[in-house]
TrEMBL record:
HAMAP family: ArgC_type2. Belongs to the NAGSA dehydrogenase family. Type 2 subfamily. It comes from Cupriavidus numazuensis. The gene is argC_1. It holds the Pfam family Semialdhyde_dhC_1. Its EC number is 1.2.1.38. SUPFAM superfamilies: Glyceraldehyde-3-phosphate dehydrogenase-like, C-terminal domain, NAD(P)-binding Rossmann-fold domains. It is an enzyme of class 1 (oxidoreductase). This is N-acetyl-gamma-glutamyl-phosphate reductase. The keyword Transferase does not apply. The active site is at 117.
Length: 309
């Protein structure tokens, strides 16, 4: 029996390039991409996607929908790295650590949607706490995050690293219209009753994310404190290979969070910072926006799906 054929559609973007790099040299699968002259040929792309075992879509949303609509072979399975299907009820959300049964769901799914980079951190922090009833589903959440400029995709990398590169701004907040595409995804998969406020930013570095969520203890049950929230997260991710909850004694001595510390990995570190005197807690997630936030997650999902081949 031949090894599974994996087709990367859109392998020239930041996510596609890193997926290709992570899969290069694998002997348990056959990797296939289209030549430059064929990438915009609808007929050739349709042939390719219908001939593979698993397709990984690294495309803009509209193109990802077109690619899925071109599938007529019922055996083809898909991992979509775009945001086109992240809230679609017929697609399996590709965050294996999200729930105890999620890895098995991904392994058996025909259609898997990769989580967004920022939602990976937000859902990772909030879903266990909301499901445990420690953070109310209607809590007025505000989520702040800073990413490397590769979060803008190939255009961001080209602007600051290309032939006519300019120096990136030290820091810039964006999404000021408060209509970013990620809040609906966060709301749905974290189990929130209302849309959270989401404030994203870019820093003057290539990749990496720090995402934080402030919590006021006065708005939680009287017996809930930082240690309670930490214990819930630690229990939920106990044994997880790629999501690690920092022990309280480690986070208590941290003076800063470095968004680049996990670059090049598929790992995510979650922390809980607490000030009992003021009744304040800060939840944080640190991970690589091109790793656990994109290509690393796609390869993790692919490996799960290959167990069913």
């Amino acid at each position: 029996m031949s090894s599974p054929l994996v087709f990367i559609d859109g392998d020239q973007g930041t996510t596609g390039l890193q997926i290709h790099e992570r899969l290069r040299g694998r002997t348990d699968l056959r990797l296939f991409t289209l030549a430059a002259s064929e990438r915009k040929d609808p007929r050739r792309r349709a042939e390719a996607i219908n001939a593979c075992d698993i397709a990984i879509l690294c495309l803009p949303d509209a193109a990802a929908r077109e690619a899925v609509n071109a599938i007529v072979n019922p055996a083809v399975r898909v991992i979509d790295a775009s945001s086109a299907h992240r809230t679609h009820p017929d697609w399996t959300y590709g965050f294996p650590e999200m729930a105890p049964e999620q890895a098995a769901r991904i392994a058996n799914a025909q259609r898997v949607t990769n989580p967004g980079c920022y939602p990976t951190g937000a859902v990772g922090l909030l879903r266990p706490l909301v499901q445990a009833g420690l953070v109310p589903a209607n809590y007025p959440l505000s989520i702040h995050a800073v990413s490397g400029y590769s979060g803008r995709g190939r255009a961001g990398v080209e602007e600051y690293e290309g032939q006519d590169a300019v120096s990136p701004p030290a820091f810039q907040v964006y999404g000021l219209e408060l209509a970013h595409k990620h809040p609906p995804e966060i709301q749905q998969h974290a189990g929130l009753a209302q849309r959270p406020i989401f404030v994203p930013a870019y820093g003057a570095f290539r990749q990496g994310i720090v995402l934080t969520v402030p919590i006021a203890l006065r708005q939680l049950a009287p017996d809930v404190d930082g240690a309670t929230l930490h214990a819930c997260l630690a229990h939920h991710y106990a044994g997880a290979a790629h999501v690690h909850v920092l022990p309280l004694h480690e986070s208590s001595v941290l003076k800063h969070l470095d968004p680049q510390v996990l670059n090049g990995t598929n790992d995510m570190h979650l922390s809980v910072f607490s000030n009992g005197e003021h009744g304040h807690v800060l939840l944080s997630a640190v991970f690589d926006n091109l790793g656990k936030g994109a290509s690393g997650a796609a390869v993790q999902n692919l490996d799960l799906m290959l167990t069913r081949q």
